[in-house]
Amino acid sequence: MHANALIPLVVGAVALIARPAPVVASATIEGTVALPAASTAPSAKARYPTAAGYTIGPADAPAAVVYLEGSFPDARPASGGTEVAQEHYQFKPGLLAVQRGSVVRFPNHDDEYHSVFSYSKTKRFDLGRYARDDAPASLTFDQAGVVRLYCEIHDHMRGTILVLDTPYFAKTDAAGTYRLGGLPAGRFVLKAWLDDDQVREQTVELRDGATLRVDFPAP
Q: Do 108 and 128 form a contact (C-beta atoms < 8 A)?
């Protein structure tokens, strides 16, 4: 091979070696959120005749959603598998956090009709009454905010969908523990959402490969 023919190969090899490694989002935040005590659920009362002796399951324990707020590259929400079911005459989960643009299904796992609706400004809808064997509706949540869920038939049922403008969020467990991984380095605001009037926040400085402990005590 002629010496001049080797020049592009050598230059290409040098460029490949010199190319910087891709940036990996590897920061982590973990901690706890002080959660409120479980509130007394509204008394169960059906607006229409229902099966005799049906049993209402327990509502979910209080939880918070912790999320990183900032300017992030556009990231598509995960597709498929996100749902709020009607099960044992409760919304399951009672609190769901999703990224803006997510599609949520609403299956009915009970033996009676349910009717899911919301009057929230973030997303107003009414799915009407449907049974266990009916194909569940799916809705796209394309605006950030809080969506309150109700059942027109069973007025004790309550649910919440928190639509977020960030791909970095996690729901706490019943003890208030959370963990957020795969985060980018930089300075951001970390928020803990418990309700519309209970949003706590702290400024955080994240470094690649480092784990930061952030707790949200009760005010």
A: no
Tell me, rounded to whole angstroms, the distance of Cα 3 from its chain centroid: 60
User: Which amino acid is residue 76, in one-letter code?
Assistant: R
From residue 40, give the alpha-carbon distance in Å to each of 30, 45, 173. Answer: 30, 15, 19
pLDDT-derived band at 7, boundaries 50, 70, 90: very low
- DSSP summary character for residue 52: T
**Segments making up each domain of the chain, as ranges:** 23-213
- Reading the block at residue 105, the tokens are 């299904």
Tell me the three state secondary structure of residue 18.
Answer: helix
Say whether pLDDT at 6 is over 70. Answer: no
Is residue 190 a contact partner of residue 214, using CB atoms and an 8 Å limit?
Answer: yes
Q: Is residue 82 within 8 Å of residue 105, measured between CB atoms?
A: yes
Domain 23-213 sits in which CATH superfamily? Cupredoxins -  blue copper proteins (2.60.40.420)
Which pTM was predicted?
Answer: 0.83
Cβ neighbours of residue 215 closer than 8 Å, sequence gap 6 or more: 31, 32, 33
